[in-house]
Write a structure and sequence with these properties.
20 helices, two-stranded antiparallel sheet, alpha+beta, 4-stranded antiparallel β-sheet
């Protein structure tokens, strides 16, 4: 059950604790976190935020100060907007990266994650539609052969086929560039005429430069490179083109130069890098049980730092390039199950009735809804020892799922309701889930925790 709070009072207090209204550059939210982009992150009182009633935790990740609020999120977020004139859902300013002292690797991961994240809901929607059509087709062969199934199949496949366009949009938004320039160039790589040229196999040149005959549907890395290059070219041309000609020439020059580079350099380079990634993940399949177990065990700490988002592009690449994901999605799903299992162990052991009820409620949210932050910050990290249970459950479940060969064939959420995405390997994934929840709950119950901290 949620902690009852005064949303207006909590919103006012949180804004003060992040440095006041003048320190807030923009505000947004995800499923469980209120996210502030601050002009000076150092002004935020993180301990004060964590001690605020209704707050489950606070982390600084991805250039944002993120307040974990669970069920109290939307009410507080609405009050924050109501009380202030903040910019909503804005792109993080580039200068903010310098303030948070991100190294080059962190900036690259932030860019890649920011580019892919807006695409994930569409991939999940398309993937789940694929699963539904598959299940209906198994029940009704007539439907499988119908035009209705064919057209719905086009809709389900669209996010995957046109993935470069979606990623180009996300990448451009992340870099605060004009999205349509990158999208236009990415779309050119998917034009039917180019597909026909590839099929014909005749040599193709642009300004005398040979163009490699490569198909780019469902590709990820070429679009990331296009978005990156287009954003910098747009800025360059904005600087050198006289003001009176900007509206006419900046877009023209940006898409023309980016387009030339896309067909001759960026596309082939991204395709080659993608092939290397495929080889890496195919090699990891030889140690799948260990890989899934280790990743599932480490995920609670990766989620807290925001580093888990760095895996999203590779998961997408696996499903679009290989046809399935045998490591990342299974580990992500098992992590949520382990968080839920640990909360069950806490609920069974806790003496405080209200906290016991909250633990079971959050466990349900982890397992059925796939939302782990309330479990991490509100229960398991708060009590410390349950985190051992989470890691033990994730490792045990990952080992079982890996040994049995669990594979996700389409995108989906990390919830038990997404089991159909594992198609014929559903029994393998289900076995991993059962082991994961039981081990996490048992280890947590046996280790125990400080009952004085187990209260709402």
């Amino acid at each position: 059950m949620a902690v009852k709070i005064d949303f207006a009072e909590t919103a006012k207090k949180l804004v003060e604790l992040v440095g006041g209204p003048d320190n807030v550059q923009s505000v947004t939210h995800c499923m469980t976190r209120l996210r502030f982009t601050l002009k000076d992150p150092k002004k935020a009182d993180l301990d004060g935020i964590k001690g605020t009633r209704g707050v489950m935790g606070c982390v600084v990740a991805g250039g944002q100060t993120q307040v974990v609020m669970g069920e109290n999120l939307l009410g507080t977020y609405q009050e924050v907007l109501k009380q202030n004139s903040f910019k909503e859902d804005a792109v993080v300013d580039e200068n903010l990266d310098a303030d948070t002292k991100q190294n080059v690797g962190q900036k690259i991961l932030a860019f890649v994650a920011g580019a892919v994240t807006p695409t994930v809901p569409a991939l999940i929607a398309g993937g789940m539609l694929k699963v539904v059509l598959l299940l209906i087709g198994l029940i009704s062969p007539d439907f499988a052969a119908s035009q209705t199934n064919t057209i719905l199949g086009w809709i389900a496949n669209a996010p995957f086929y046109f993935l470069p366009i979606f990623v180009a949009y996300g990448g451009a938004k992340k870099l605060n560039a004009t999205p349509t320039y990158a999208m236009l160039v990415a779309a050119a790589l998917l034009t039917p005429a180019w597909t026909t040229m590839i099929a014909d196999g005749n040599p193709v040149h642009m300004f005398g430069v040979p163009v490699k005959l490569v198909g780019y549907s469902s590709s990820l890395l070429p679009a990331l490179l296009i978005a990156f290059v287009a954003s910098y070219l747009e800025r360059f041309f904005n600087k050198i083109v006289p003001g009176i000609f900007k509206s006419l020439l900046v877009g023209l020059l940006t898409v023309a130069v980016t387009g030339f580079l896309a067909f001759t350099v960026l596309g082939p380079l991204g395709s080659y890098a993608g092939q290397l990634l495929v080889k890496v993940f195919m090699a990891l399949e030889g140690v799948q049980p260990i890989a899934v177990a280790v990743l599932a065990a480490l995920l609670p700490w990766l989620v807290m730092t925001g580093m888990h988002m760095a895996f999203a592009p590779f998961m997408t690449s696996n499903i679009t390039d290989i046809g399935y994901d045998a490591i990342i999605r299974p580990a992500f799903l098992l992590h949520n199950m382990a968080e839920g299992g640990a909360c069950i162990g806490v609920g069974l052991k806790a003496k405080d009735p209200e906290f016991k009820s909250q633990a079971f409620s959050i466990a349900f949210g982890c397992i059925v809804a796939g939302v782990s932050e309330p479990a991490i910050y509100g229960i398991n990290l708060k009590l410390r020892k349950p985190m051992i249970g989470v890691m033990a459950g994730g490792a045990a479940g990952g080992l079982v799922a890996g040994l049995l060969g669990a594979k996700a064939y389409v995108m989906g959420y990390s919830t038990i309701m997404a089991l159909p995405i594992f198609v014929e390997t559903i029994p393998a994934m289900l076995a991993g889930i059962v082991v994961c929840i039981i081990v996490a709950a048992a280890v947590t119950f046996i280790l125990g925790f400080d009952q004085d901290q187990a209260h709402v």
